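Dear H.,

Thanks for agreeing to be a second pair of eyes. The structure we're designing against is below in token form, covering all 362 positions.
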């Protein structure tokens, strides 16, 4: 078990990148009438600056200070840049309509914080209550953003969005998943983010049967997640061609890594998943769920070609690794993984074609 304090270890695991520089000709929201650090609503001024930038091809600059938003902010095809997540803050005052929506091609969000003044229950899970919603965007980047609270997801990527980077962000206290990729979205890199106290999974790739396509070609790399999150750590619940590499998953209520096809939520099949070099530490803490640290589960459909290489799986509450369910589970490969300090069964393989070589602890 890693005896180093969680926060200290997490700081080493996540490599931060610098915020995007502010172009000299960027349109300042202050020039459009936004006033920081007071009780006025800055929505109209900031949306106006974004609309001007879309017409002129310029970026939008959010100077240091706290700005208040009463509605959903729509960022279409432009860059919205601040002085840093500890300096430039956008505060949504309506918990039902507080999302920052990304549309179009080439959007960049960088260098500011988005916080909710108050939140409401997750309820119907409406995307209007996310912190950031990616709506069919292409070639987007979300970088060096701090997200504090949301009624639903922190960053939601849907509507068949393509070719995006979600990098070096900090997300805390979301009402649903921290980062959620779904609805046939593809070509997404999720790298070097920190997710704490998520209301559901910390990072999830999900494909429902009703979606237009399967979410695919996603890389989840170098993230530090968990820290009292309410469900799974990193999950693929319907998806293809997903890489889960060199992440640290610590202290989640359900499985730290979860690969699944769920009849309960009518999700799609899973194929070609590689799980390499991750550390899964003390997950599955919810007593009534009895999840092992790593769980492959199918209650319908098919899971096939899932590979676990060189992972360290430690300090379990309900066992190390489980593979089970009434669905069709095909080839599951375990190569050079290490199980340590396991409570319960080290492995519980009830289904699937299990291939095991050079592992330690099972």
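And this is the sequence the design step returned. I haven't edited it by hand at all.
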């Amino acid at each position: 078990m890693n005896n180093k304090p969680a926060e200290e270890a997490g700081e080493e695991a996540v490599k931060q990148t610098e915020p995007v520089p502010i172009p000299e000709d960027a349109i300042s929201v202050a020039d459009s009438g936004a006033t920081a650090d007071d009780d006025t609503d800055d929505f109209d001024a900031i949306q106006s600056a974004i609309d001007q930038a879309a017409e002129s091809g310029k970026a939008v600059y959010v100077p240091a200070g706290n700005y208040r938003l009463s509605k959903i902010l729509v960022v279409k095809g432009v860059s919205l840049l601040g002085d840093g997540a500890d300096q430039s803050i956008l505060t949504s005052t309506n918990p039902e309509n507080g999302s920052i929506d990304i549309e179009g091609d080439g959007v960049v969000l960088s260098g500011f914080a988005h916080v909710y003044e108050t939140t409401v229950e997750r309820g119907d899970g409406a995307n209007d209550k996310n912190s950031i919603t990616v709506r069919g965007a292409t070639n987007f980047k979300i970088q060096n953003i701090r997200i504090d609270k949301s009624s639903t997801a922190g960053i939601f990527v849907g509507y068949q969005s393509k070719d995006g980077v979600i990098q070096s962000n900090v997300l805390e206290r979301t009402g649903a998943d921290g980062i959620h990729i779904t609805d046939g979205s593809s070509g997404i890199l999720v790298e070097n983010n920190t997710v704490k106290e998520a209301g559901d999974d910390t990072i999830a790739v999900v494909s429902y049967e009703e979606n237009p396509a399967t979410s695919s070609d996603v890389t989840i790399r170098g993230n530090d997640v968990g820290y009292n999150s309410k469900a799974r750590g990193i999950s693929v619940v319907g998806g293809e061609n997903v890489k889960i590499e060199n992440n640290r998953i610590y202290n989640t209520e359900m499985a730290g890594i979860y690969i699944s096809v769920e009849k309960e939520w009518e999700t799609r099949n899973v194929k070609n998943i590689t799980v390499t070099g991750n550390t899964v530490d003390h997950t599955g803490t919810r007593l009534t769920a009895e999840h092992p640290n790593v769980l492959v589960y199918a209650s319908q459909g098919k899971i096939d070609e899932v590979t676990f290489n060189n992972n360290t799986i430690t300090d379990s509450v309900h066992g190390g690794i489980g593979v089970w369910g009434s669905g069709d589970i095909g080839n599951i490969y375990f190569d050079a993984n290490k199980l340590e300090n396991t409570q319960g069964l080290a492995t519980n393989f009830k289904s699937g074609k299990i291939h095991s070589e050079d592992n330690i602890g099972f």
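Two observations from my side: The longest helix spans residues 43-56. The helical segments are 6-13, 43-56.

Warmly,
E.
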